[in-house]
Amino acid sequence: MKGRLNEKCEIYSFGVVLVELLTGRRSFDENLPSDSGKRVAEILKPILINKEMILRVMDPSIHGQYSSVAATRAALLANKCVMTYARHRPNANDLVNELEQIQHL
User: Fold this and answer.
1) Model confidence over 70-88: pLDDT tens digits?
2) Less Cβ around it within 10 Å: N or C end of the chain?
3) Are 31 and 6 in contact (CB under 8 A)?
4) How far apart are CA 40 and CA 27, in angstroms?
5) Model-level pTM?
6) Cα(52)–Cα(29) distance, rounded to whole angstroms?
């Protein structure tokens, strides 16, 4: 937002990619209403913190290839990464640690 790139910008970008991987949707969707900003990560933020809703937005092409616990934790991590304010996003070390934990679920 301020025109400066740093680690937290990279974390945000990673979060967008993670949302794409989890949902199978592109990060920018022309079919969304214009008032939504057309950014999938922004629209899905409320869903990514609702454990019951997370599994409903998962990419159907990867159904059965993940545990619900891993999917939930990955979605919650993605949500943290796309927080509006950089100070609320995880740092790179925390991100890697969480991904490693998710990998072992």
Assistant:
1) 999 999 999 999 998 999 9
2) N
3) no
4) 5
5) 0.82
6) 24
